[in-house]
Design a protein that fits this description.
- The chain is globular, with a radius of gyration of 21 Å.
- The longest helix has 18 residues, at about 165-180.
- The chain is of the alpha/beta class and about 425 residues long.
- The protein has eight helices and 41 strands.
């Protein structure tokens, strides 16, 4: 949507940068089955884009460390070296889950910055850098042992650690605004806006090239910017309220309400009511129904009337089942998290704080369970395992409709995920 990444300038010489994934990716599942933590969306960009800005233009191109089983897919998507040995006098290891609005500058060589007990910035010399392998960084005990005698330095004052999917959802309003400010308060119309469209606070509305906004649409940017990418179609009588991001080639259905705090990745089709949600891309919720405080992966498809709750009738705090353990979020608004390639039938209902894994089909006439494991086929007749080959076949059909296909590395990842998800999600 915003084109090339601009970066905050850092005045001192930077060491080799390695952005690494740690064991915290597990609490971001099922979203991190199909991607590294650094590829998750927030605002108008991804976590890796925000880190690159914070590292500054002097940092050069970073290297990436992630789970070995995801390395081939990550290399295709990130377009840079993944899990390659580091050979430099000093190396700055930066946690992929780190989020900061300030510049990241190295502390003294050998020092470690932590948020809680989690290392987020490690400035290693050549000897330590050679020991910080991808597998070590994914092992909290091994990493703690290596860093036990390292001096402590302070992380940026605004630094936060993305620990759960709802951390991204709750920060989305702020980071949409930040991305807009970063681009110099981008605004203007480069597409076609029909007569009869109502734009409130046009100075905070951007509409990209070849996008079409049909009569009766209301774009309300009075409470925050509305950023619409290229080749977007917004059909009559839809309402879009900022802060909001509509990615390239999205389609917004007639009478849809896309409310504040929402980010839609590329080529989504959205209808009904969507509020304070992040949809990664290539996902469909074309018809009526409510999606609130939710995070959807790619290639998700919701049948007409699919609705999730994001507030308990008791107004109490919401507990979310994360890999077999209920986590008290301390929040009263938490919606739905859905892994990639999962689908729902018509009229499907999800309760507050529900999680649906990777590659699921959920089609019941009642509320779905609060946790649906990956590769589950769930109907009123019962729950069964979703055959991986059949799931891949259906995924291929869906992707071909958008002129996409699985790469060999992605197909291999698909096949790995059944065993991997059983190991973690069933505990």
């Amino acid at each position: 949507l915003f084109g090339p990444i601009d970066r905050v300038m850092v005045t001192q010489n930077m060491p080799q940068i390695v952005i690494f994934e740690d064991a915290g990716y597990r609490d971001l599942l099922p979203l991190t089955w199909w991607r590294t933590a650094r590829e998750l969306r927030l605002g108008a960009r991804t976590l890796i884009d925000h880190l690159r800005t914070a590292l500054g233009s002097d940092a050069g191109d970073p290297m990436f460390y992630c789970r070995p089983d995801l390395a081939d897919v990550a290399a295709e998507r990130l377009g840079g070296p993944v899990n390659q040995p580091v050979d430099a006098e000093s190396v700055l290891f930066v946690n992929a889950r780190l989020l900061t609005a300030e510049s990241v500058t190295p502390g003294p060589i050998g020092s470690v910055s932590r948020i809680g007990d989690t290392p987020v910035i490690i400035h290693a010399d050549r000897s330590l850098g050679a020991k910080l392998l991808p597998q070590t960084l994914l092992d909290p005990e091994a990493l703690a042992g290596l860093l036990a005698n390292s001096p402590t330095s302070s992380p940026p004052e605004s630094a936060k650690l993305i620990s759960y999917p709802w951390d991204l959802i709750n920060a989305n309003d702020e980071w949409i605004e930040r991305d807009w400010q970063r681009q110099g308060k981008l605004y203007g119309v480069d597409g076609h806006v029909y007569r009869g469209v109502h734009i409130l606070n046009a100075s905070a509305v951007f509409i990209g090239k070849n996008s079409v906004i049909k009569p009766g649409v209301v774009i309300d940017a009075e409470a925050g910017p509305v950023l619409i990418g290229q080749d977007v179609k917004v059909f009559p009588n839809a309402v879009i309220t900022g802060p909001c991001v509509i990615g390239d080639r999205c389609e917004i259905s007639e009478n849809a309400c896309i409310a504040e705090g929402t980010t839609l990745g590329p080529r989504c089709k959205m209808g009904g009511e969507v509020s304070h949600s992040i949809v990664h891309g290539f996902s469909n919720k074309v018809h009526y129904g409510y999606l609130g405080k939710a995070y959807l992966g790619e290639w998700v498809n919701f049948g007409a009337g699919t609705t999730n709750s994001d507030l308990k009738n008791t107004y109490g705090t919401i507990r979310v089942p994360v890999n077999g353990v209920d986590v008290d979020t301390g929040k009263i608004f938490i919606g739905l998290t859905v892994g990639d390639f999962s689908k729902s039938g018509i009229g499907q209902m999800f309760s507050t704080g529900s999680i649906v894994g990777f590659g699921c089909n959920v089609a019941t006439r009642r509320f779905a369970p609060r946790f649906v494991p990956s590769f589950t086929w769930l109907t009123d007749q019962g729950q069964a395992a979703y055959d991986v080959d059949r799931c891949i076949e259906v995924a291929g059909r869906a992707m071909s409709r958008r002129q996409r296909e699985l790469t060999p590395a992605e197909e291999q990842r698909f096949c790995q995920l059944r065993a991997l998800s059983d190991q973690i999600e069933q505990k």
